[in-house]
Task: structure prediction
Amino acid sequence: MKSARPLPARFRSWAVGVRAAGAMALVLAVASCSLFGGGGDGGPKSASPVQPDPAIAAAAPAELRGFYSQHVDWTPCEANFSCAKIKVPLDYSKPDGGSIEIAALKLSAKDRKMGSLLVNPGGPGGSGYDFVKDGATTNISENVRAKYDVVGFDPRGVKRSAPVTCLTDQERDEARAKSYALDTDAGLEAALADNKVVAAECAEKTGPVLGHVDTVSAAKDLDILRAAVNDTKLNYLGYSYGTFLGSTYASLFPDNVGRMVLDGAIDPSLSYEELTSGQAKAFEKAISAYAANCLQNSGCPLSGSTENAVQQIRDLIKAAEASPLPSKGGRQVSASTFVSGFILPLYNDKNWPLLTGALGQAAAGDGSGLLALADFGADRQANGSYSSNSTFAFNAINCLDYPTVSDTAAMRAEDQQLRQLSPTLGYYFAYGGGNCQDWPYKSVRTPAPVEYKGSAQILVVGTTGDPATPYEWAGALRKQLGNASLLTWKGEGHTAYGRSNSCITNGVDGYLLDGKAPADNTIC
Result:
């Protein structure tokens, strides 16, 4: 019997979780989330209100000048950082109709000559606040941190910024443990009924902001954040979904773009279904790459050819579909939990040994390793609490950003197509339209190529073996932007800057520090 497929991995960079999880050790449970060692270079240097630049406020639309001219208090926080809350309109079509606050965290530069570098780690639903707090010193080079204040923020709807709120921690555990046979009418009906209940809970507990967590609104927030750090131009580093947020900003505020790095690019012209099929195909490619690598190392639980090894992975998933695996903590590991844990290490090839260990356990009848990985990806702590609302924010933002096809016949047809593209995981990418079928707010955007008319060159970074944002999307985004350069890493995993090689680091750093992008189509 099929189990419920996990939340599709669409756009996730998993922020702190996967990008640096190579430091993790699998000891039947994933260790703590503080993988980087916190702390900044210069400590909090700004503990008083930042006086807004009158010229920045004067350039803003008249109805928004109050937001652009607000005094922002940056106060010491998190040991070596500064924090602030910046007011933005709840609804940009009604700027006087109430406001929400965006939580931001700053790592101060030793010698601030370049202004601020605002960072989004992905998602949608990833916390930029946490990314800078826990990972800036690992993922962003010392040279960049020396000249830029690095600022992370939680976009609207995420964690500390008017968060999307839906279920209790216990209810989240129960929802993740449920199984549905989505390829049967009864199973699909049951899943859609549960989705409808969750959607109603989200609407009741979150309130009106649930209808305003779309990416266009978040990009408008980003311009107010630019004013809050007193920069006339936005300097920005966006990973994965953060590239979509960044390209949206560039289309809305072309004259305000400074130095913008978009790593792990999303093609804005693609539909929800096209994005899903692209990911399914890319993940299947990544599975083969992992299997081939595993076979070359001792301790690999797979054997034979690469094709044989991939089939063995499929067999393990089918076994979990037939009978959930036990874990040492007593929880059952369904096929959907198996797949959630299995997908996570594919985002970073440094984590492949973790996957090898977890698959070895699974082959011996123990799902503990895969459960630990799945919990880590879901931000579940050892005590059963969840440290973020990323799952709920992910769905809420996507439902506003993308119209989806949710009639049964279309979803069944998509299921068959996805199984062809990815025999291993295709089913687990299917039926995504059901997530938005009974969502209380309709989509507010129609996918289309991005238009950018600015004079500042943008740097797009792509990874040839990226499973979450296929490399082809980077080329498509670079072409749509026009005034852009494509930097390529020939590697495996999701995104490149901060985890690849010196060629990528030097290319990105040179652009951020000197303003000179690598030649278009540079390959590292």
